[in-house]
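Human:
Take a look at this sequence-structure pair and walk me through the tokens.
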Amino acid sequence: MDIVYASLKRRHPGTGAEASEAAEAVDALWAHAKPADGLQHASAQPALDRIDLLLYLLSRDPSDLPDAVGRAHSLVSRSHRTSPLLRRCYLPPEPPGATGHTAR
């Protein structure tokens, strides 16, 4: 199993998270997951400036593309585009590697 950490930055840092925000974010991930994503479990934790996501994905052969980070990014992007809550509260996800982090 591969575990991918992702986060979305809040549009307005410092604003309080809604009580159900983490659950709604996880629901959006599940609602937009495709079998090819390999999603097995997801969790979310809102903070003042972001929401942190942990995505547990089925492991694949390392030579398969996209890798776990790419699959997670596709899922988070897809969920962000279609979830009113995520679009309203968070900026679109940055492409993998944009922050200097790499898959391990």
User: Anything to note?
Assistant: The domain at 2-89 is CATH 3.30.70 (Alpha-Beta Plaits). The longest helix spans residues 68-82.
